[in-house]
Amino acid sequence: MSSSEKMVRVVVVDDHILFAEGTVSMLSSETYISVVAIAKNGSECLKNVKEEHLDVVLLDINLPDCCGTDLIEKIKALDSTVSIIMLTGQDPAGYVNVSLKKGAQGFLLKDCSKAEMIAAILQVSRGKFYFSQNMAPYLRTAIIGKEMQKNDIKGKSLTPKEIEIIDLIAQGLHNREIATTLGIKTRTVDFHVTNILPKLGVKSRFEAVRIYIKNKEVSG
Amino acid sequence: MLDNKTMRRLAFITANAAFVVICLIYISVLFNHPYVGLSLENREAAWTVTYSDPHGESFQLGIRKGDTVHKINGEDPGLHPSIQKWGDAEGASEIIVTSPSESLKVVRITKQSFAMVLLSALPMMTLGFVFWLVGLVTVFKRPFLVQARALFWLNWLIGVVIIIAPASSRGLLFAKELEIIGVSLVPILLVKFISVFVNERTRWIRLIIWVLGLISTLIVTILVLKGLGAAFTLGVIRKLGLGNVLIGTVTVIWYLAKLIRLPEDKPEKNQAAVLLAGIAAGLLPFVILTVIPILLNVNTVVDSQVSTLFVAIIPIILSYVVVNKSLPDGLEFLGFFISFLIYGLLTSGFLTAFLLAIGMIKTINVETYLSVLSLTILALVIFHLIKALLHHTFEKIWENHSNKKDEAIYGELSTMNQALIVEELVNQLGIDGAFVIAEDQEGWTTASAVGCYLKKTRDQAIMENYFQTAKSTMHSREIFSNDFPAEMYIPFVSNDFPCGIFLGHRRSCVRFQANEILFLNAVCYQLGQRLKAVHIIKQMSTDITVMEKKTGDLVRRSQGLQVINRLLFSNIEEEKKVLARELHDGSLQISLDLNRRMKELVAGFSTEDDNFHTTSMMLEMIEDLNYELRSICGDLRPSSLRDLGLIPAVEVMFQQIMQKELLVISLEIIGFSREQRFKEELEVVAYRLMQEGINNVVKHSGSTRANVSIALIEKNIEVLVNDYGRGFDPRKIPDWSLTGHHFGIIGMKERIESLGGEFDITSSMGHGVILKATIPI
C-alpha cells in the first residue's frame, strides 16, 4: 500500500446489529478503511450518503423499510462516485443481475472472510468489481454480461470426481442419492454440479446429461 | 186386416182431422144462435125461470130467476122444443116475461155481433185447443210410448168436449147429447190412462172401468130414449154424468195415493206423486166452484167457464210426466197441495165466522163458504207463486255471479284430497252417494264416504268387509240386491293400489240402467287412476321434502368447509412467511456471524496445529448449517418474490429445479414486462401454483419437458403449466378430494377461487397434463 492512498470511507447498511457491529470490528483492523457509520435502514443510509462524503456503501439487501436493490439508484442519484457492494445472508440468486444492472459493483455473501471483505472494499473503491468466492455458483447460473464472465470455465474438461457425478446423474440419481453413494456431503455434490453444468455449456441438468452422453458416444 | 201400427196411425190421423172439423163446425154454428141461458120449470101452470145464466142474453136483457115466462116465440113455453127436451129456452128469439117487480115485457133476443160471439167463446176454445195440442205434442215427443198415446186420446176427448160446450149450451146439433156422452166417457179414458201409465191392470181397475162404462151406456140409453120422447130431466142426466166423473176422479186419486205408498226405489212413486198433485190442483177449483154446488143444488160460485179453465193444468202436468224421465220431487208438491187445502179450509172457516161476526155477511150457507174458500186458496197460491218467483230470480242472479259457465268442464287439478275427488264424481254423476276404499302398498287403507254414506258407519263397515274379501279372490263388477247398502260395486284392480268403488244407495231414487254400466266402468277406471296418481304424488312430495332438507344441510356443510379451507390456506401461507422471516432474521444471522468468526479463527492457525483441524471441522459444520438454513428459507418463502417480483422469483425457482431434476422448463411471458409487480396475494398464489404444478410434473408425469406461460389478458393473469408426460384419467379428479390425493392441486383450486379466479385441469391418459388458472388482477 502506498501512502498516497487515502482512507476509504465506508458506511455499513444493515439492520442486523450483530452482523453490523461484527463487520465494523473486523474492518477496524484495516488502517485504510474507516467505517464512518452504521445505517439501520434505507433512509439512514441515504442521509449518510448525503451528509458524509463516502466512498463505499456496504448495502444489505434485506432492509426493514425497503429492498437494498431499490436503494442503489437512489444512492447513485445522490452521489454518483459512491461504489456499492451488496451484502446478503440468503441465496443471492436473482438479486445479482438486478444489482449489477442498477450499478452495484460488488456482491458479498455475509459469511465471507475478513480478507475478502477488505479486498472487496479496496477493489471497488478503485472502480473494479468484486464478488466473493462463495458467489461463484450464483454468478454462473445467472445471465451475465460479457464483462462479468470472470470465471468462464466453459469447455474445460471435467475432473474425475465430476465425471463420477455426471455418470450418476445420467442414471437419474438425485444429488442426495449421489452423496450417499459417493459418501460425500450433499452440499459438495451440489457444488460439483454447479461446476459441471457451465463446463458442459448448459444450464439444466437434463441438457448436461444429453450432451455428456452424446460426447461419450462420440468419443467412445 | 191392417196391423196394429197402421191402424193406430189411421185412427190418429182421423182423430186429428175430426177435431179440426168439429172445431170449425161447432164454432161457426155459434154465430147464428145467441145464447139465451134460461132454465124454466113448470110450477103451478106457470113457467118460472129457475136459472138465468149471467152469460146468457136473457140475463143481460133483464130476465131473472123467479120471473114468469108467458110466451116463447109467440107460443106457450111448454111447446118450445128446447123446453121440452132440456128445460131451457134455447132457440128463443122473442120472450114475453113478467117479473114480480115489473110488468109484462117483451124481450127480443137478437143475434150478437161476430166479435162478441168470438169473445165469449174464446175461453172454452182455448182450453179445448190446449188439451188437444198438449196431447199432440206428447205423442210427437214420445211416439213409441204407450202412455203418450193414451194421454193423446184422453186429451183429444176432453178437447172435443170442451169445444162443443158452447154449442151444447145452445142446444145445437146434438151438441148437448154429445157433450154429456163425452163427459161420461172422460173418466173411463182417464182411468185407462192411469192404468197404462203405471203399467198395472189389476182387477180393481178393470172393475171400475166396467162400472164407468156401464154408467156411460146408461146415459146414452137415456139420451136415446129422450130423443124418442121419454121424459127425463136434464138434472138427472147431468148428475149421472158428473157422478161418473166423480167416481173416475176418486178412483184415480185413490190409485195414485196407493202408488205413493210404494217404497222409495220405485220411480212410479215419484211419478204418481207428481200426477196426483197436478190432477188435484187442476180439479180442485172445478170441484169447489162447480161440482159441489151442483150436487148440492146450490148456485155455483163462479161461472163454470172460469173453473173449467183451471182444469187446463191437468193435461200439462200429465204431458210433463209422460215426456220427462226424471221428475222433481212429487211428494213435495203433494205436501204443498195438501197443506194449501187444509190452510185454506181452516182459514176460510175462521174468516167466514169473522165476517159473520162483524156483520158483513148475513147468513152462512154453502155458497158463501165456498166463495170465501176459493178466494183464500187463490190468495195463498198467488202468495206462494210470488215467493217462488222471487226466490228463483235471486238464485239466478246469485248463480250468474258465482258460476259463469255451466257448460264447461273445469279441468284444474283442484284437489289432492281423496274424499273431495270422490265427491266431485258423485256430483257429476248425480247419484246420492259413493264409498271408495283404496289400499296402498304397505297395506294402509283409506276410505272415503261421500253423500248419503257420510254418517252410515254400519253400511261402511259392511262395504269394507266386502272389499277385503273380494280383493283376495278374483273380484269383479257387482250389482247388488236390495239388502246391500250400495247399488253397484266396481273394482279398480291394480297390484300396488287396488280400490273398491261402491256407487249409489239402495234407498235412492236414482238407479243405474243397463246401458250405463260400460260408462260407469270407464268413469271408475279413471277415478282409480286418478286416486293412484294422487297417492303417488303425495308420496313423492314427502320424499322431495326430505331430500330438500338433506340437500340443504349438505349445502350448508359444504359452504362451511369451503370457508375453513380458505382460512387454512391463508393461515399456512402466513405461517410460512413468519417462519421464514424468523429463520432469516434470527437463526441465519447468528449462523452467518458465527461462520465469519470461525473463518477468522481458522485462518489464525497454522495447518499443523491440532486446533486447526478441529476448528476447520467446526467451520465446515457451520457452513453446512448456513447452507441448509438458507435453503430452508428459500423454500419456505423466497424473499425475491417480495423484493424482485413474480417473474424473477419464478425464474430463480425454475433454474434451481432444472439443476436438481432432469427436467427442462421453458417460461414464456406475454403481455407484460419482467419487472411488473402485482398485488402480493396474486403473486404468492401464482408462484405457489407454478411451484405446485412443476412439483407435480417432477413427481408424477415422467416428462422431461414442461412449458409454463404467464399472460396478462384483459385484467386477468393467465398461468398455463403443461407437460408431456403420462397424464391421468380426468374422471378421477372428483375422487381426489375424497381420498386426499394431490392435495396440493386441490388446495390450489380453492386458493385461486378465493381470489375470484378459475382453475382447470385437463388431461388424458398418455397425453400429459395442462393446468390453467385465470386470476383477476
Which helices and strands occur, and which strands form pairs?
The complex is a heterodimer of chains A (220) and B (777).
Chain A: E1 8-13, H1 17-27, E2 33-39, H2 42-51, E3 56-60, H3 68-78, E4 83-88, H4 95-102, E5 106-109, H5 114-125, E6 130-131, H6 136-141, H7 160-170, H8 175-182, H9 186-199, H10 205-219
Parallel strand pairs in A: 1-2, 1-3, 3-4, 4-5, 5-6
Helix pairs in contact in A: 2-3, 7-9, 7-10, 8-9
Chain B: H1 4-32, E1 38-43, E2 46-52, H2 57-60, E3 68-72, H3 81-86, E4 94-98, E5 105-108, H4 114-141, H5 146-169, H6 175-197, H7 203-227, H8 234-260, H9 267-295, H10 304-310, H11 313-323, H12 330-358, H13 366-402, H14 418-429, E6 433-439, E7 445-451, H15 457-472, E8 478-479, E9 486-492, E10 499-505, H16 517-604, H17 610-636, H18 639-643, H19 646-660, E11 664-670, H20 680-701, E12 705-713, E13 716-723, H21 733-739, H22 743-754, E14 758-763, E15 769-776
Parallel strand pairs in B: 11-12
Antiparallel strand pairs in B: 1-2, 2-3, 3-4, 4-5, 6-7, 6-10, 8-9, 9-10, 12-13, 13-15, 14-15
Helix pairs in contact in B: 1-4, 1-5, 4-5, 4-11, 5-6, 5-11, 6-7, 6-8, 7-8, 8-9, 9-10, 9-11, 9-12, 9-13, 12-13, 16-17, 16-22, 19-20, 20-22
